[in-house]
Structure formats: C-alpha cells, structure tokens
Amino acid sequence: MNSISNIWNHPKTSAAGLLIAVVTIASALTQQGITLGAAGNGTVVTLISGLATALLGLLARDPASSGVNTNSANSTVKLGVWALISLLLPLPFMSGCSARTVAQEIVNWTPALESAVATVDSTAALLASADAPVFAEATAGFDAASNLLVAQAKAYLANPTASALAQLQNAVVIFEQQVNASLLSAARIANPNSQAHVLNAINGVAAIVIAILSLVSSISSKAAVARMAARSTIKLAAVSPYLDKVKATAFVAGHYGEPVDLARVQVAEVELSARQAGF
After folding, report:
1. Measured over all CA atoms, what is the biggest interatomic distance in the chain, rounded to whole angstroms?
2. Which of 27, 143, 224, 227 lies at 20 to 30 Å from 76 by C-alpha?
C-alpha cells in the first residue's frame, strides 16, 4: 500500500523513474541485438527509447514558481537533472545521427588530439634521465598513429564508404592499443614524479582516443565492433586503474561546452559501453 501511496502522492517523480527504467532497458536490449522489429529508419526499441527520453524532457520544468514548497522544488530539480542527463547523454543505442555527422565530430576532435600528442612529445624533458628512454619507447608510435587516424577520419568524412569506414576502424584500434600499452609501461616507472608526468601526458591522448573509439563504434555494425574488439588485445579493464577520469571529464566538458557533472556521466558511460563491447 505504501508503494501505491507514494506513486499517487508523487506522480511526476514516479513517471520519471518509469521513463528512466524504459531508457535503461532499451539500452540493454539493443546491446543484446534485440530490436523488436523495424520502425521507419530505426527499430522499435530505438523508437520507444526516444519517446521515453522526450517525455523526460517534458517533465523537467522550472520549479521556481509561487506556491511550490521546498521539498517539491528539490524533487523537481532532481527530476530536471535526470531528464537533462537522459536528453543530452550520447548513449550508443540512440540513433538519429548520420554517419557523416559522426565523421565530422571525429574530425572536430582532431585538433585536441594533435595538441595532446604534442604534449606527449614534450614530456620526456620533464622526466628523470633513466625514465625518459622508457617513455620515448612507449609512445614512439603516437605521432604516426595520430596522423593516420586524423587522415582516415577526414577521408571518411569526404567519402563515407564501407571501405573508408573499415580503414577508420582499423586506425582507431591501432591507436587505442598503443595508448593502452603505453599506460601499462608508465605504470612500471618507479620514480613517482616521472610517473605522474607520464600518466598525465598519456591520459590526455587516452581520453580523446576513447571518445573517438566510441564514435567510430556508434556508426559500425555489431559484427564490425566485434572484430575491432577482437583486435584489442590490451583491454580497458587492464588499464582502467591508470585512466584519469577527472582529466577525461575536463576534456569532454570543454569540447562540448557542457557541465562537468554531465561530462562525468558521459565518460563513465562511454568506458562502460566500450568494455561491454569487448574493448
């Protein structure tokens, strides 16, 4: 009876909880390849998820109005936060973005990527003499991998064919694996100051490469993602202790011009989705 009473007394919060559950279940179904049939250019699951997200947006309203008590206002604010996250979080099961749009977003990340790689190149000068050669060897392929990934992203944007996408998939996996390997190498550096400099530099690259990996995966078939994951022999789970979530959050928030709290949720969701996909 208490549950029924709570639903009756707090209909808006209850409705939001139900809609969030619908979005979450839709995510799980899509990750398992369950579509429930086609709906226009998408699937039934995608349609249901999109409708639930839209309704969440309608529920989020400004509580600052006369006659609204504090508890009700706080409840509505929390509801608005959840609705905002659901509306803006780029979950992998949400469709609607064309391959060309995603390709442009990948290209948009490339200036930040080039800057992060340049930071890696200049970091050796900050390290203890014994650590610099180890770091240089661990990151030796970053420049070539970065140039290849940028070139393939631009090539796919200019001509988004299956062949160009396959080359882009290959380029991002190669770079992602190099970054993972370098993180494991950095963990073996004994000098704490050197290790801090190394991890900070590599994490700048890692945050962007993981974001690009997520974007590439979002326009790839399930079979293609599985092939990409199979080539990823150093998994994210192995390097997760060395990933700087704060740095990644700052990169995402700055790139998209969004609140840090939202970026933090996005970073966590992207890493979780990548690990679930087998990376």
Report:
1. 70
2. 27
Alpha helices in the chain (DSSP H): 2-9, 11-31, 44-59, 70-88, 99-123, 132-138, 142-158, 162-186, 192-218, 222-231, 236-239, 245-256, 260-276
DSSP letter for each residue of 4-47: HHHHHH-HHHHHHHHHHHHHHHHHHHHHTT---SEETTEEHHHH
Q: Per-residue pLDDT for 11 more than 80?
A: no
Contact 271, 236 (CB under 8 A): yes
Domain ranges of the chain: 2-88, 99-276
The DSSP bridge partners found for residue 42 are: 39
Q: How far apart are CA 139 and CA 122, in angstroms?
A: 11
Nearest C-alpha neighbor of 93 from the set 159, 148, 164, 42: 42
pLDDT of residue 263: 84
Predicted model pTM:
0.68
Angle (CA) 240 256 226, round 5°: 45
